Amino acid sequence: MSAVSQPALKRKSISYSKWGYIFLIPFFTAFIIFTLIPLANTFYNSFFENYAKGLEDVGPNYIGFQNYVKIFTKESLDKYLLNTLIMWILGFVPQIVVSLLLAVWFTDLNLKIKGQGFFKTVIYMPNLIMASSFAMLFFVLFSDAGPINSLLETLGIGKYRFLTYAPGTRGLVALMNFMMWFGNTTILLMSGVMGIDTALYEASQIDGANGWQTFWRITIPLLRPIMAYTLITSMIGGLQMFDVPQILTKGSGTPNRMSMTVIMKLNNYLGTSYNYGMGGALSVIMFVITAILSLLVFRALTRESRENAKQRKALAKGGVRL
Amino acid sequence: MSTVTNPRNRDRAGRTGLYVYRVIAYFVLIVLSLLCLFFFYVLLINATRNHADIQKGFSILPGKNFTNNWNSLMSNSELPIFRGMLNSLLVSSLVAILSTYFSALTAYAIHAYDFKLKNFAFKFILLIMMVPSQVSALGFVKLVRSMGLMNTFLPLFLPSIAAPAVFFFMKQYMDSVLPMEIIEAARIDGSGEYYTFNAIILPIMKPAIAVQAIFTFVGAWNNYFTPALILKEKNMKTLPILIAQLRSADWLKFDMGQVYMAIALAILPIMIVYFLLSRYIVAGVTLGSVKG
Question: Which of B258, B225, B260 has its CA nearest to residue B240?
């Protein structure tokens, strides 16, 4: 928006303001019907005992906060939260390290990496793969009689029954999450690195700093906001982890529910056991966690726009048109 | 990093250091690329081999069983893969169209008009942007059931009219390319507000719409959680549900050539589009992605 036209807009637009409301109608209608009402209904359901017992329906009976107590004591939601956290961390740590490395390499003018377009295209590709197909592919490749195991045998390492052991299953989930997201994170971090004022690098080079020092003293501190953004959005995404472990373990979270995620449990309540009370309580807990994380993202986004506005004002004062 | 030279960095040790550094960088990049490509190469190769060959292990060369696998998959009535593809195509296209059009309209409302609730509406949409759809899934499924819309596509594409992340992208784009003068000029020429949006604003927004259309299409194409709760009838199922079925069935009895062929068919359309448009897609990531 041009800073110059802003006052003009205010003066003229009085008669047009109703159009602002009219154009917002579709968004808010769809939001209220398909998100807000279902969300309220989910909250409401969490206070009722309501599930299918064989062919019989139990409830709905109002039971207050009992579902919330039961979900931790009897249904061990804490375990599923921990599983989700572990698998997310196992995928995220290598993801952020590798992405940071690649982002620095791609933008390093001394290094002059050739074929960047090719590399970026290839590493971003897994992000667009259907997660359920990807999981199915990994399942057949890493199954006990699958090609990876026959390769391990030929190499003399011996078979490893990936889906029988918790580290194997969690490792596969983490590997898939890593592959699906490191290209995306690399590209995001690259734009961050390219936004850093090159004068800072020039100055540090003149002062005799080596590559290692510039990386830790300049690149990392200045990338902190975008890294925080990546961390939080990835955490929100990680909490929604579902397709990959669901299909890899046929929805059972084998072995011994060590790879069962929170959303897999929700899917279980909604699609198999029809336990709406528990499902509601789980949804509300998820909502609270993601809402807190969302607030952090929201603050980051609005801070940026506040700063932009300040800059724009400052520039406008100097007679610069944007 | 800058190309400004410091004599100390130009000596021989510095140059060999840089050389080693470069070798390491290329090595890591090639290993990662091979990791990404390896699995899809195996997938495509195995889709052309027969069950017995696949059980023997890897092969670098494709087999001769492509048509057999294709035919057996097509004649498998439990797995209507083409029907699934059509369903996915229909739902994903509608999601892409609705979410981009209405997000642009919503962004335009906030961008072009001044009204009392403008700031509130903007902040509200930003606030709900990151809340995942799973948390309201319970109420959503109940609502869909009470409306009698189970096993229909309506509940899968209508909600995309409210797509906060797409809205945010459109708003950012409008801030950078859409001066108020254009809108005022249209008003002076006697253009109505809604007509201005459709005839003047949308064409200006084309690049942003294209990028978001691709992302929302792919997102809907790959979406598994909600469709799996809504679509239970065989002929209504979208691709991810059919693929998940491969895992649910007693897969050891399955013809593996057929399984690989099904996975390949689910992935391939997106891959073809990706390699044709990769330049725009990769550029679009930085502009608007707020996903996990």
Answer: B225
Cross-chain Cβ contact A287/B3 below 8 Å:
no
Instruction: Judge whether A73 is closer than 8 Å to chain B, CB to CB.
Output: no
Give A278 to chain B, closest Cα distance, Å.
Answer: 10
On whether residue A263 sits in a domain, the answer given is yes
* CATH number of the domain that residue A166 is part of: 1.10.3720.10
Please report residues of A whose CB lies closer than 8 A to that of B132.
Answer: 236, 239-240, 286, 290
The number of domains in chain A is: 1
Residues B108 and B197: their CA atoms lie apart, in Å, by 8
Contact B135 A42 (CB under 8 A): yes
Q: Is the CB of residue B146 less than 8 Å away from at least one CB of chain A? A: no
Q: Which of A26-35, A157-166, B163-172, B211-220 has the highest average model confidence (pLDDT)?
A: A26-35
Indicate if the pLDDT at residue A106 is higher than 80.
yes
E strand spans, A130-258:
none
Instruction: Report helix, strand and coil shares of chain A as percent, to nearest 5.
Output: 75, 5, 20
Domains of chain B: 7-71 (no CATH), 73-288 (1.10.3720.10)
CA distance linking residue B167 with residue A7, whole number of Å: 25
* Residue A316: predicted pLDDT: 58
* A286 touches B at CB < 8 Å: yes
Q: Kindly state whether residue A192 falls inside one of the protein's structural domains.
A: yes
Assign B162 a pLDDT band (cuts: 50, 70, 90).
Answer: very high
Q: What is the pLDDT of residue A283?
A: 93
pLDDT at B228 over 50: yes
Please tell me the predicted confidence (pLDDT) of residue B32.
94
Q: Do B289 and A188 touch (CB under 8 A)?
A: yes
Contacts of A271 in chain B (CB under 8 A): 228-229
Residue B22 contacts residue A111 (beta carbons within 8 Å): yes
What integer best gives the mean pLDDT of chain A?
85
- Inform me whether the pLDDT recorded for B11 exceeds 80: no
B200 touches A at CB < 8 Å? no
Query: How many whole angstroms separate alpha carbon A168 and alpha carbon A144?
Result: 12
Look at B149 and B1; give whichever has higher pLDDT.
B149
- Look up the domain containing A220 and give its range: 57-313
Contact B162, B102 (CB under 8 A): yes
Q: Which tokens belong to A63?
A: 């039971």
Asked if the structure places residue A160 within a domain, the reply is: yes
The C-alpha of A91 sits at a distance from chain B's nearest C-alpha, in angstroms, of 12
The CA distance from A242 to B227, in Å, is 13
Q: What is the mean pLDDT of residues B250-262?
A: 80
Report angle CA A201, A207, A210 to the nearest 5 degrees. Answer: 65
Contacts of A201 in chain B (CB under 8 A): 1-2
Cα–chain center distance at B174: 22
Residues recorded for chain A: 322
Task: For A10-51, write each residue's pLDDT tens digit.
Answer: 454 446 888 999 999 999 999 999 999 999 999 998 999 888
Mean pLDDT, chain B, rounded, equals 86
Contacts of A247 in chain B (CB under 8 A): 243-244, 247
Element (H, E) at A244: helix A243-248
B250 touches chain A (CB under 8 A): no
